[in-house]
Amino acid sequence: MKWLVLGGIALVSVVVVLGAYTRLVDAGLGCPDWPGCYGFISVPATPEDIAAAEALFPDSPVEQDKAWAEMVHRYFAASLGLLALAIWAVAWRRRMPLTIPIAFVVLVVAQGIFGAWTVTLKLWPQVVTLHLLGGFATLALLWVYGLRIGAVRSFPVPGQLRGHVAAAIGIVVLQVALGGWTSSNYAALACPDFPACHGSLLPDMDFRAGFNLAQDVGPNYLGGKMTSDARVAIQMTHRLGAFIVLFAVGWLAYRLTGPLRWTLAGVLVVQFGLGVANVLAQLPLAVATLHNAGAALLLLALITLYAGTIDASPRTQLEREASDPGTPDDLEQP
Questions:
Q1: How far is 192 from 276, CA to CA, in rounded Å?
Q2: Is 70 a catalytic residue?
Q3: CA distance 251 to 136
Q4: Which of 1, 153, 258, 281 has its CA 20 to 30 A from that of 126?
Q5: pTM of the model as a whole
Q6: Which entry of 70, 319, 321, 332 is annotated as an active-site residue?
Q7: 329 is a domain residue
């Protein structure tokens, strides 16, 4: 089970990064149908297949590079579904608790549904953002399971930091959601400078349009449909969130000691730097993809710290000692 969970963590990480890459290269509609691609199980390759595909979808000419980006993401996601079933089967056969394995299967299936809606609803921002959050939730759930069964190591953390760690997790999750909303509405390049936006710390912003969660589903949302002021509002909100994360997690790192302090601070600084680099370098593909991966890494680091506060609590230690009778040498001899 430990090897299955570790393999699952690696596979989910790949799926999350591939999802970010697919979105960043505008390949979310690389295949206009689901689960196949132009009616094929793979990307049309021969002239005959391409002609048949474009006849079937006349409004979506075949772009093989984008189609392959989308299909590779789907292949890995499908593999994740099989692995989720394997984890559930092993847990059931060995009579292990089934709550997390079943939740993992349900979450992977839900992700498949959101993946289909991403295509059929033509990149509707609400669905794309929820699909991103679902990917992070899938990774976080499997990481928690790894911590629980000992596949992933936790580290003792003072119990008085539990509330701070929990708050930091909540703030990072909100920031991830803002990042997804920024990306799905093509607002990452709304401001070409930093920390100002178009030379102003308070540029013209339209928050009502930028955060209108009831916006209509357009015929195709590729490239976005918001005004410049609406996208600036999203970008500036995401920046404000980044500074809040920098303060909250940075303060937590300061309260830690030893390697934990410097590890958390290092992940935080690199992630913040990647965000700034995205703006100043005009969203380089490698940097933007790493920024998504960095957000996942920061979330997992905080979850690990939270698990450490539970494992190190006095009550947990007493429960472990009560359940462990000790070695034969420790037992009273008759």
A1: 10
A2: yes
A3: 24
A4: 281
A5: 0.89
A6: 70
A7: no
